[in-house]
Amino acid sequence: MRVLVDALAADFGGIRTYVENLLASWDEQADDLGDHLLVMVREGSDLDTGRHSRHEVRIPRPGPVGRPFKQSVVTRRLVTDFGADAVLATMPSTSLVRVGVPLGVVVHDLRHELRPEQFSRPRRLLRRVAYDRAYDLADVIVSVSQRSLDDLFRLHPDLRTTTATVVHHGADHVLAWPRPEQTGPAVTFAHHSNKNPGLVLDAWADGRRRGMAMPPLTVLGTGGQRTALAARVAELRLTDLVTLAPYLPEPEFRATMAGASMIVFPSDFEGFGLPVVEGMLLGIPVVIGPEPASLEVAGGHASVMTSFSAPALANAVVRAAGFDADRLEAARAHAAEFTWRRTVQQTRAALLACGGR
């Protein structure tokens, strides 16, 4: 099968992690599958496309406006020139016109609709136009979780007649990470508001007040929130327990994650929740909130907060610290089922089912 992969939006964050690992696993299986991929990337992108063919696209400014129109022109031309059997859009922002072959659209989450306050008005408008058009054109929808698919069908009930499937991410990329002794601090995240770094700090203060043994904590990806979070750390008198870290270079991020004593992930909105299965596969106790996607991928193997409150999070941290070797091994075995090989095979099957060949 010849697949044109639209990865024009895969330069940063979770979408980049997804695309790079998907492409790497497809590359590893290429000889067995007999597939040939052509990957569309932004001009100058350092996205690793492995042995797959690569086509760089110059995006007119402003990018969020220029990209969909450029995609519409380039995608149709490449489908013909490449002889594509199918197109895989790695997020719902792709060609605005029919591409002439079956189109698979990957849906990660619907945060812009369910949490609109987290997006500027122009970005919400652009997403609504681009995403709604991608949904209309899709021959098959590939959702990264049941949670995201349920959200999609609830908000867009007319899509219930579109072929759709759930294809989870892999987690086995962490097996190539360094494997230090997991004696480092607990790790949590601050790169989006849904990660709830303020709640984590309040939980650490609450646990300390109640005499709990709260572990040292590193908050990753503080970015623009650093000043406010630093003030909150000082106010709660947590400077001896909490370290604020910026966005780390990838090697340092991997070492920090792999050496963590705990992954604290009280996110109140996820499309998938990759750190949950990453932590489990690394043999690290994981704490999550009662959030649908996190619960889905954890499969009962995480310490779950009873509510989104500081006492509930502090209690969940203490429970996670008490996980024994058997509990951690059961979590690791569960997470080992999340492979990128499976992701590729299920994604490929979805494209074949909608008419790719």
Give structural attributes.
13 strands, 357 residues, alpha/beta, globular, Rossmann fold, 14 helices, six-stranded parallel β-sheet
Between the first and last Cα atoms, what is the distance in angstroms? Answer: 5 Å
**Strand order within the widest sheet?**
3-2-1-4-5-6-7
CATH top level label of the largest domain: Alpha Beta
Specify Rg, calculated over alpha carbons.
21 Å
The helix content is 40-55%
Q: Under CATH, the topology of the largest domain is which? A: Rossmann fold
Number of domains: 2
- As residue ranges, the low-confidence spans are none
Average pLDDT, rounded to a whole number, is 94
In CATH, the homologous superfamily of the largest domain goes by the name Glycogen Phosphorylase B
Number of helices: 14
Number of DSSP-assigned strands? 13
| Helix vs. strand class | alpha/beta
- What spatial form do the alpha-carbon principal axes imply? globular
Most strands sheet? 7 strands, parallel
Note down, in words, how this protein is organized.
There is one protein chain. The chain folds into 2 domains: 2-170 and 339-353, Glycogen Phosphorylase B (Rossmann fold), CATH 3.40.50; 173-335, 3-Layer(aba) Sandwich (Rossmann fold), CATH 3.40.50.2000. Helix content is 43%, strand content 15%. Strands 3-2-1-4-5-6-7 form a 7-stranded parallel beta sheet, sandwiched between helices. The chain is globular, with a radius of gyration of 21 Å. The protein is of the alpha/beta class and 357 residues long. Helix 10 links the parallel strand 11 (262-265) and strand 12.
